[in-house]
């Protein structure tokens, strides 16, 4: 392989190779037929192998994935020794070549690749995929991973093959010939890994007709995926860009917060002594690719080629298939003959990316540009000469003086036009909304009294039902009938009414949006906007008791003096007005670079900008303080809007995507008034299995409008 080792890196290669195999196997999956009733340990349902190429995306062979019925499969994965297997439904999002309905198993035409999209978000490991084409291999060895049936049982296996050349030419039918090992049935779709660079370079395609080995397809063949016919207005509009941007952000974020049991791919690549393109070490390359993936993709392949040709001239051949994303362009630079100026070539490329035309911009684009510039500046300061650094500074000033584009309205949306239209419908005249109020019984904390009503635009509140001593688990069943009547009262065609749920502070984290009113019914939050409010704001524990991170609120704590209460209400109204009139920005309070941190005391939260919408990334991860303390502090801080997601207990889960997407959603809303509809669109997208919404699994929205006091405060007229 052309990726060389760093000097002195030969020691400890055995350990590095074992660590690399562990990473590869953790990302390798087996693929089964879809459908309930199948025993996933039975070989009869087994179709072949694959591997996670990005969060919630599996790369495999088309002949494996298309062997299922209707493009539906089940993905079975195992994240580490002793952790057990898990299964998740998937669908074939695309396959190459396109328009092949079905072929005899094992004889699918090249490139024989498929991307499987998971139906729901899960936490798992992802393989690192090379940014360089497989055509640059020389004689070398690779190893593979997959699943097969051995002795009547499904078994994970791996092995080593030699690269013996290629089949085909410079086209989609080019394949890598492998020899030196028997490739058993079932490993098709598994990853082929270069042990020198420590990256996945191909996908096992077929066995040899006679003898050892078989063929594999280079992962760069995915570049031949169809380019969207319509204008790309968001990252997920282009499948290729969506998958590989997610891939590069995952590895950047994993490097910041590694798994507790294993190192990262960059760590192992460092142990191998890999030196991507001579100029960067694996960690530098991972950080650069992650920053490039935060930006919108190239406006076209031609635009990317123009950048490469301006840097390389005629001194290097452009690889085939042509590069399509920023990562592909970086990989193309590795073959440049500029040995002495390799670092400057990479930095020049990053500066071209900063000044490139954008197919769209998002609320986070400007921040991503600053982040990429910081990487360029810091790298140049340590390793480039003074004249070159001055030239970079002049280029940066020119970029800052260039006109800036504003985000398209639809790019602030997590879903498409229907959600966009619905969100805009919230503006203007007030609309009726349904209201559920829960009162927790102090002597029976697992039971509640409840009331269902509708608030009309006139301010009148109409009651539709109430109940006493209902167990928390029984609330969906008890509320189903009165809520159905309430929704009929206030729903309009194409615009389901908002449901506000007023909860006592110990229950603010209750997953009301996940309530179902029947076994086949979608979750309530996927059907309509659902927000939570604080029902006992005037009975919260004294904020002074929450000044230290280790303190706990005591039930029935003292109330604030009247003057303080008046000041708190005025501050709350000021914050509410600001984020609705001038826009908002998200601030994650409980997580820094993937590490859980305590939420600041209420007094510190009050000092945050009026534009702030607090965000909790790890609600439910109770390692510093219990969750009610965090939420009470947010309420005490005068915030009427906050976001959080219910933590699922994975202490090593990567959370960078949640931080990024939550920030874009809040900033892109323009006015906080749109957040209930935007969160509804995310929940509906989760229900529909749209990967661009998977970051929002378990999301909750606190939206407590001071202009709409709850019944019983004396501000609303209640009708029986």
Can you tag this structure with a few keywords?
disordered C terminus; 720 residues; six-stranded antiparallel beta barrel; single chain; alpha+beta
Shape: globular
Poorly predicted ranges: 1-11, 409-428, 546-560, 714-720
Helix-strand category: alpha+beta
How many helices?
Answer: 18
Q: How much is the radius of gyration in Å?
A: 28 Å
Mean pLDDT: 84
**Largest beta-sheet characterization:** 6 strands, antiparallel, barrel
- Give the N-terminus to C-terminus distance in angstroms: 78 Å
Strand line-up of the largest beta sheet: 1-2-3-6-5-4
Number of strands: 24
Strand content: 15-25%
Helical residue percent band = 25-40%
Can you characterise this structure?
By secondary structure, the protein is an alpha+beta fold. A hairpin with a 2-residue loop joins strand 13 and strand 14. Helix 1 runs antiparallel to helix 4 (265-272) and helix 5 runs antiparallel to helix 9. The protein is globular. The chain starts with 12 loop residues before the first helix and ends with a strand.
Provide a short characterization of the protein structure.
By secondary structure, the chain is of the alpha+beta class.
Write the layout of secondary structure elements.
Blueprint: H1 13-27, E1 28-33, E2 46-54, E3 57-60, H2 62-65, E4 72-78, E5 85-96, E6 113-118, E7 140-150, E8 153-167, E9 175-179, E10 191-194, E11 199-207, E12 214-218, H3 239-256, H4 265-272, H5 282-293, H6 301-312, H7 326-333, H8 342-355, H9 365-383, H10 386-401, H11 417-424, E13 433-441, E14 444-455, E15 460-471, H12 475-490, E16 499-503, H13 524-527, E17 530-534, H14 562-581, E18 585-588, E19 591-592, E20 595-596, H15 602-606, E21 612-619, H16 627-636, E22 641-646, H17 656-668, H18 675-687, E23 699-703, E24 717-719
Parallel strand pairs: 13-16, 15-24, 16-17, 18-21, 21-22
Antiparallel strand pairs: 1-2, 1-4, 2-3, 3-6, 4-5, 5-6, 7-8, 7-10, 8-9, 9-12, 10-11, 11-12, 13-14, 14-15, 19-20, 22-23
Helix pairs in contact: 1-4, 3-5, 5-9, 6-7, 7-8, 8-9, 8-10, 9-10, 11-18
